[in-house]
Amino acid sequence: MASLSRRGFLGLTGALAASFGLPHSMLAEALAAPLTPGEGATTLQQTIRQVNIGNRQYRTLVAAPGEPYLTRVDLTGQDPSPARAARRRSIAYLGHTSDLHIMDAQSPARLEPVSEFSTTLVPGNFRPQETLTVYVQAAMVKAIADAAFSPVTGAPLAALLNTGDMADMLSNKELRWYIDVFDGTPVTPNTGKAGEYEGVQAWEEAAYAYHPDDPTNDPFGAYGFPKVPGLLTAAVSQEVKSGGLPVPWYTVFGNHDTVYSGVFGTDEAVRNLATGEQKPYAFPALAGSYFRGMTTDTSPLTRGFRALEQQFGFNTGFKRVTGDTSRKLLVSEDFMKAHFETTAMPGPVGHGFTQQNLDTGQTFWSTDIGPNLRVFGLDTCNQVVGADGAVPQNQFDWLKTGLGQALQEKKLAIVLSHHNSLTLENTAQNLLSPGEPLIHADQFIDMLLEFPNMIAWLNGHTHINTIQAHPSKVGPGGFWEITTASCIDYPQQQQLVEIVDNRDGTLSLFSTVLDHASPPSWRQGDLSPTGLASLSREFASNDWVEDPLMRRGSPPDRNTEMLIKAPFDMSMISDADLEKTNAQRKATILANQKGAVT
Prior knowledge:
Elements (H helix, E strand, L loop, with lengths): L5 H15 L3 H9 L13 E5 L10 E5 L4 E3 L11 H4 L1 E9 L16 H4 L15 H14 L12 E4 L9 H12 L35 H4 L8 H7 L11 E3 L16 H8 L2 E3 L2 H13 L4 H13 L5 E3 L11 H7 L16 H6 L4 E4 L4 E5 L13 E2 H16 L3 E5 L21 E2 L1 H8 L5 E6 L6 E6 L6 E6 L9 E9 L4 E10 L13 H12 L19 E6 L9 H23 L1
Parallel strand pairs: 3-19, 4-5, 5-6, 10-12, 12-14, 14-16
Antiparallel strand pairs: 1-2, 4-17, 7-8, 9-10, 11-13, 15-16, 17-18, 18-19
Helix pairs in contact: 1-2, 1-17, 5-6, 5-16, 9-11
């Protein structure tokens, strides 16, 4: 297949240099360089492992050897051609993030006191690394930027696809921080009083919490958690500069972006609690102001009285904190609107959502990433109750029509959703569309299998690296479901996904697991931004409620080459067209890097 001519190269270089404001000579040199596998740090070169493993024993982390790609032929049933490596060409190289769970750990509306009653009633109600989430996200952005060129083909990153659970507790401030970190806007992760942490980790009365200044008398001390004096002040005082993503990014709703704590509805009492000056540290106080208010105290008079109790301290089990209106809780349109308050680079404005979404309230979207790939962003989240999800009938019908149109146009298709096939089972009816059928996993997968161009379903929610093959029921074919882990629970990993044409009637999907760019081993006393990200990973590896090692997934769920039958003749995509696409993507990365520097 013909490559780009010299005249075509010069014309393309000039147009891109003018469009992105880049020096012509610098861009020409970059575009003329052949594609070679990128050297950015991934788990191909180095992994991170626990030093010691034992019951009630605190575990530190160290660097360990990398993991090569494992080849999976679940959908082709035969060994791939050894010659494919010499023939392959990249169609699209993508980043995939999910479940960042950005936390305003000082918000009065957090559910930490539930731990006083039960550590499992509301999973994740308290983690010792809660003040460090913005630092982890910034370190992950750095890792993605460092891996901007594929470790397989050298192709430039085209886009980042994000599959939800950004704002952990439905907080406007949490949402703002996550957008700013992706955009490269500096963030100081603090609300309330400037430079001072006000919350359960500093209060002796909250005996269930980790107290880094002295954990001797709390459960974390019993498990060997170290003293880290100054941690809380450092966490809320430092400005975090991520540098921003080098490519456009797109997002969908997660259950934590939809309902309170990803599970519950909200009422006036909890909304007042979020922005007010009273923070509960004891379970009875929290239950009295929130859980009881949601169940039995439904009258306006009672709700109003509860608001006065919260604001003026008539309840026991509360401490006074600095109120902050930026902590207000979101409603669904807030999530979409916030994505229009963004920087022009890396873009796009809306990050998948369009003006039509704002005008109609529709919470799902589609977009093309280059000329050969269409991405469908779904909203599988239940707006009433429950952590798990489903696909409403109107969204199901829209997606089915869209996949058919993409097939006619000879475009590969990827579906994004927060929920995966194990968690697409919620039956609670949407109050805005009562009686609308809800599509669950089996029916949804059967529909996706009708379209041979549907090659991958990217999702999250379970915080576990998982790759599942969904084979066609009528012969060779099917699609791959790729679930990434989270940035809050161990191993705090995300992933890179590349679509490669093997030029033999098959495609390969390469999944590469990515650790965030912070030291594998935390050094005592290192409270720098990267040190705090490293410490967060170490804390997460010491979760005694869940099994942290399980979340890594098995080897076939991590660095993997997944074979799939090509849905149509891939030779219709010329080498020249791919060179143009890659030139555009490389120029985008260079322009964003230049913007981050200046």
